[in-house]
Amino acid sequence: MFQGKTLRLMPLDDGFVELCFDRTDESVNKLDQLAIDELRQAVAALMSQAAGVRGLLVSSAKDSFIVGADIFEFTALFERAEGEIEAQVRDQGAVIAALSQLPFPAVAAINGTALGGGFEVALACDHRVLAERVTVGLPEVTLGVVPAYGGSTRLPRIAGSTVALQWVSTGAPHKADAALAAGAVDELVGSEVLRAAALNWLRGAVDGCHDWRARRTALAGPTALDLVALEQARAAAARTSHHFPAAAAFVQFLADTAGWPAHAALQEEARVFTRLCKTEAAHSLVRLFVNDQFLKKKAKSYVKQARMVRQAAVLGAGIMGGGIACTSAVRGVPVLMKDIGQAALDIGMNEADKLLAKQMASGRLQPEQARQVRASICPQLDFSGFDAADIVVEAIVENLAVKKRVLAEVESLVRDDAIIASNTSSLSIEEMACGLRRPHNFVGMHFFNPVPQMPLVEVIRGPQTLPVAAATAAGYAVAMGKTPIVVQDCPGFLVNRVLTPYLLAFLRLVRDGADFQQVDRVMETFGWPMGPAYLSDVVGMDTLMHVLHVIAGGYGSRMQAGFPLAVELLVEKGRLGQKSGAGFYRYENDAKGRPKKLPDEASMALVSALQPDGPKHFSDTDIVDRMMLPMVLEAARCLDEAVVDSAIEVDMGLVLGLGFPRDLGGVLHWADRVGLQEILRRCERYKAISPLYEPAQAFVQRADAGKGFHNASR
Which residue of the set 174, 210, 446, 710 is catalytic? Predict the structure, then answer.
């Protein structure tokens, strides 16, 4: 009947037809422009033969149903004029609407993941049969937009406004049983009987057992609006609408259109989608999706080059070592965890136990699985078994002399081909390798704390590190469920190097009279998860001071403060941040035992003593510029000095490692959006304050050539 590159129409028995999505030469189905065009042709073919068709089965020949739209097409779409975007979206939505209006019943047999546009295809059918253990959902708000192929209109009419508000405004995926309970699907069956169940419903519909026509009529009208759920969703969306407007836009869309006929709501759906396409958040979130796919592709290349890691070892227990060991063991790589004292081993195993308990509480692990994972972590006071380790991760005290001594000892006990990695946030990989006989097998492996939650691992190549060693460390990070970014050795590597001028800029602002609480408020409003003063307290003032001295010391006068640092004074007074109960703020535990941040007059008095000209008011714009410009310039230096391979890795390193605001897409993406000439103009205002605002010549040349960071790297 019809055969395309993404789908086909096939006649079945009893006058039924199957529309099977089966994308040629790819492992998944996606709803890109090609698939939409072929669906248009398939629907036309069905209409031309409607007299001989009694019902339609919509299925997939892949392990998934349809994973969603092709997000790579969004980047070009978003650059078009609003009128062109709306016309295209309306045209594409009309194809899905035509599927929903065929003159015979249609059933979707959802055998695997159905997200976004894929689930919207299923919503256009009269009945949805879902296989067990399948995930469905409408995640469009996570890309800064709303469902625009009918999902925003059809889901509230199928499952009710309360379900639609929760599903669409959060974008969360839902398991099969939850989807059934919500009314988003109609049947839940075993995968082995999915097709039979779908065809059985189709026969019942044709025989008059299911009044699919009456249901269609009802779904074409308005939907009841749960006003309590609406206001709750409105309040929740308002908390993030400044940075992520899509959720609030959907809530307003539903409030406006619930009483409308579906065809009118579908038109408004396209308009809302179009408006959101032009927001900073949509551009940035789509950029992050594209960047993430780039990193996944690169990670696969590392895995192909890597040596197999069947046995790992962690040297140094404690919270960090326990987190690394548990994360490895959970993902199937057994670990030896060695320390010099039983107390440290106990801390490491207690950390592993807490992490396993959380996984069991969330349902990600069953008790027997947790016991097996724990049994695969071997705490020990000696080096027995290290000769079988494929990789050893050293996670001891951040002291260069101690690390060099311990690394040399470990090297004498492991196989010649074993990889040794130092978990360090700032110490020189080249310097640590000086005492090793096999520096080519030595890398840095910077895990971020807390290890189980933070997705990024920086893999640091020293001057003598072989590509296979770096690839093996990166492959091990992938096996642990992490995202590796391979960087070259330099003070601070990538993430902490770029963070250092940001923090120095903050300390300079405080010295110049700024209220650190205002700086925190402004930067949190800008989008950071916490302001720089609060971040300093969380990291620990002593740790921060050590890192600042090590990194800033590696870049000469450019990062020399030239004035007393507030963090040094706070350390001197024993105010180390959360861990001591006071830093810039003071801390009290709440009812759940979590530290609660409170203002502290004592710290304000201490900080004011470092302000030679007294307190001074700064505008929010000044604060943002003084904080962000040094970060942009240092990130650009990292790219131009080949610390990393691409602007994508710079941006994703800061997003994944620091929590850079996702709605801004990364520091270099933000610079591209602001404009490099505008960045230079703003820097000119602050050059007299500090060398932190002096751009490198490469930055100036890039700006003068009219280039951005991402358009130059693609």
Answer: 446
